[in-house]
Amino acid sequence: MRSMKGKLFYLLAALFLMAAGCAEKKQEKDTVRSMIYLYPRNALEVSVQPENDGEISCSYPSCGKEWNIIARPDGTMTNLDDGQEYSCLFREYTAVGIPAENPQEGFVVEGRETAAFLQETFSKMGLIPSEYNELIVSWLPQMTDNPWNLIMVDVKVDSVPEELRILSEPDSVIQVFMSYKALDAPIDAEQPEVESLQRERQGFTVVEICGAELTHS
User: CA triplet 34, 36, 41: central angle to 5 degrees?
Assistant: First the structure.
């Protein structure tokens, strides 16, 4: 009887450890770097509030609970907290379950070709150099030294991302999320079509461009 109880104890302990391991795996997080660009029709005071401010590890300009800025049609903005001019709102944060995590779909790119590939792809999508160059600069040091990268791009339009609140409310929103996984060798992956976003820029437009490295399988 004692032997049976011992076996039952070890079985329950094993199941508990397995469940804890699964829960831990579900909570694995990736680091996301986000650049937000605002293009109002006229100079406009705007509040941008990141909903996940507790997860932010870095922001520029510095963000407490929100950014309060004067945005202009040419994309420049003045931060009302320090009076300085900026080209975008940057934040680095951690997230669970980020988009574009399908290892069977994406672009397999040699590490040294990463910069040229991203320039060409983002240009075809209708993003402008002042937008995508900052994303490339942010991630190129990690990506270019990899033998290969699986690069995935997820696009959302017409809805403010869940982790943001933007007031005054924009007329159109474009979110481009680039994630990548480092590869030791090329793999077979289905290449998605590059989606044009030119037609989406109407009225007061907000563009958020994000990047993340997928570090778990």
Answer: 170
pTM summary value: 0.82
Which residues pair with residue 46 across a beta bridge? 69
List b or e across 103-133, with b for residues whose CB sees 16 or more CB atoms inside 10 angstroms. eeebbebebeebbebbeebbeebbbeeebbb
For β-strands 172-183 and 205-213, DSSP reports them as parallel
DSSP state of 53: G
Closest CA to 161 of 75, 63, 50: 50
56 contacts 50 by C-beta, under 8 angstroms: yes
Provide DSSP, 18-43. Answer: HHHHHHHHHT--EEEEEEEEEE-SS-
Q: Where are the alpha helices (DSSP H) in 27-158?
A: 114-125, 129-143
Q: What is the mean pLDDT of residues 62-75?
A: 94
Cβ contacts of 77 within 8 Å, gap of 6 or more: 38, 46, 69, 70, 71, 85, 86, 87, 88, 89
Structure tokens at 152: 């995935």
Q: For 25-37, what is each residue's pLDDT tens digit? A: 445 678 899 999 9
Fill in the amino acid letter for 46: V
